[in-house]
Amino acid sequence: MVILGPNRYGKAETRVVRVTRHGDAHHIKDLNVSTSLSGDMEEVHLSGDNAAVLATDTQKNTVYAFARKHGIGAIEDFALLLARHFVDSQPTIHHARVAIEEYAWERNAEAGHSFVRSGRETRICVAHYDGTRAWVVSGLTGLVVLNTTNSEFWGYIKDEYTTLPETRDRILATAVDATWRHAVPDPGEAADWDKSYDAARQALLAAFAGTYSLSLQQTLYAMGSRVLADCPGVCEVRLSLPNRHHFLVDLSPFGLDNDGEVYFAADRPYGLIEGTVLREDAPDAGPAWS
Ligand SMILES: O=c1[nH]c(=O)c2[nH]c(=O)[nH]c2[nH]1
């Protein structure tokens, strides 16, 4: 005897670029939208009856139509709009999850119509709606940062396989992947997602620069704590920090010293430090992360 377990389906990675034209001053939003729905999907799996299915092609079309009809402001608002639409318009759909990545563009010179893709991190969000409640997670990926000092690593376990020398001064570098859960998940029109994003990003950067680090784990905790301190609406922060090792190159064969000047930036393997920092009284996460 087998039964159908949890399932969901949707259109992954719908790429949409929305241009808004104010005379000669144009604006662009460049998104990657993934929708994922669940609900009364027993029959489609068990017998192939598609009557309950909102086709993934329709989900993709909805993304494009909503971009035209409603425009695109903060990605959290667009994700919530889509998630609510799928559940509220279709009796067979009970949960909608919309994940969005936003690629940043900057103006190219003075021209109102010319843009250059920014080297900045990618902003992300996931909105989940169940017909009554909504959960929103915001975040970023690929925020690359580096400190040239104020980082040590020593005092760790030494066993028969340990070769790593202790260091009192090293480069600390990482590409921050961070996601943060909003405690008030469904603040509607009132939410200023852009302001909250800027505050969280600034908190991550300030904590990275300002922490005298004895380990990347300690820096992770400082970064998460700082987001919680600076963003009252956020109740939980998840961080994934690859340790981008920089090793001092031995230049002695060439008769040269190397007092923290020339490094080999290693690609892989890399340490991967991950953790969650949350308020003790954080409300239940529900399906926010799942
Ligand atoms: O900050 C660090 N944490 C570790 O757990 C670790 N392990 C390692 O080899 N280097 C480092 N650095």
UniProtKB/TrEMBL annotation:
Residues given in the record as urate binding sites: 56-57, 153, 170, 217, 243
Gene3D superfamilies reported in the protein's UniProt record: Urate Oxidase
InterPro entries: Uricase
Pathway where it operates: Purine metabolism; urate degradation; (S)-allantoin from urate: step 1/3
Keyword terms, alphabetized: Oxidoreductase, Purine metabolism
Positions of 5-hydroxyisourate binding: 56-57, 153, 170, 217, 243
Catalytic-site annotation from UniProt: 11 (charge relay system), 56 (charge relay system), 245 (charge relay system)
One example GO MF annotation: urate oxidase activity
Catalysed reaction, written as an equation: urate + O2 + H2O = 5-hydroxyisourate + H2O2
Alphabetical GO biological process terms: purine nucleobase metabolic process; urate catabolic process
E.C. numbers: 1.7.3.3
Positions bound to O2: 56, 243
One Pfam family, short name: Uricase
Protein family according to the UniProt entry: Belongs to the uricase family.
The protein's role, per its UniProt record: Catalyzes the oxidation of uric acid to 5-hydroxyisourate, which is further processed to form (S)-allantoin.
Protein name (record): Uricase
Species this chain originates from: Planotetraspora thailandica
Native organism taxonomy: Bacteria, Bacillati, Actinomycetota, Actinomycetes, Streptosporangiales
